[in-house]
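Lecture 7 notes: from sequence to structure.

We start with a single chain of 414 residues. Read the sequence below before looking at the structure.
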Amino acid sequence: MKMIFKETTVGIFSLIRRFSTSQRGSIVPLFGFMLLAVVISIGIAIDMARGTRVSVIAGGALDAAALAAAKSLRLDGANDAELLALAKDYFDANFDAIPVSSREITAQVDRVNHGVTLVADLQIPSTLAGIVGKDTIDIRKSAAAVYDVRNVEVSMMLDVSGSMAGTKIADLKTAAGELVDILLDANANGSQHKIAIAPFSTSVNGGAYADVIGTRFDRRGRPYAGASTTCMSDRSGTNAFNDANPNMGTFNMRASSCPQAAVMPLSNDRVALKDKINSLQASGMTAGHLGAAWAWYLLSPNWASLWPGDSQPVAYNEPEFQKVAILMTDGMFNTAYESGNGNSEAQARLVCTNMKNAGVTVFTVGFQVPRDVLPILQHCATSPKHFFDASSGEELRQTFRTIAQKLNGLRLAS
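Now the structure, written as tokens:
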């Protein structure tokens, strides 16, 4: 691009020199007209580029202003004048470096749906386009944001297999901890968010709940009550891929190992949740279908009788609540136990389909995953917008922050 511009510029100035040194009388006026046309064209091109740049900056500034105003509407009950003043402050903070001839911002407030729509009319001074009477460039931008009021019950399927060792498990702890903080901070303003955690690797650690629902097996595959494992493997029978009450199907315990950290049912105890996250250790294989299934069980009202009173999920059709599963992994689902159920990926597909059909919103997060893993994550996600592919620790943290902000109800309206 620089070479093309250089060659074009050289050509223009060469042409100007030829016309300026010509002795023919008819050439001089023609040269003047051509020079003026070149100047005007350059000026318009410069102003168009400036206008595009300013429009992008203004759009980002207006988005931030709309989000701030919608949040204040929901949490502070601000009146229309206060919301407009707040929006202008946020817009100016992100736009002050841009010289403008005039700016006007108007706000439309929807108190029923907790929404704010902003319109910004801007004029920026032109440069050479002023030669043709275009002294300003007019820009109009709009942005709308809403703050939904639904509470959320969130379960996090967290991959703690051996490939997560080192900085990856540290990044995961930071990302999951920030999600806990963002969601539970909203509870101080009246929300009723709760979070559950389902670590998985070679299997899932059922903890104290394993004795209630699990059937242990000896080395010959026979049911055995003497083993001490709490490692949950595949559910068998007609309810292998749904969330039927745990009394309506066999939960097997064939796995040789499981995560050190057991599942944690729904809670709004920030300290306990972050202690669980910080206790995660990486080891073992990747039984992703088990992680997905237990993330669902922790949200299912059909399992309410198993969990303590404060951890019991609400009904699926509760209008003020949303059920959300976040499925995070860094590798291929490669470990399963019941041959009749299919491999881990096949089981995960069925679990995810049934979970979404039950009314659970599913976010999926790949963390430096091989390309072969993307199809299962894309299948499990509620929509393409619910699928994230993080290639670094910072992207993983940003992904969890983005999901938490969406779940908090603050979002730009489409």
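The two ends are 35 Å apart (CA to CA). Keep this in mind for problem set 3.
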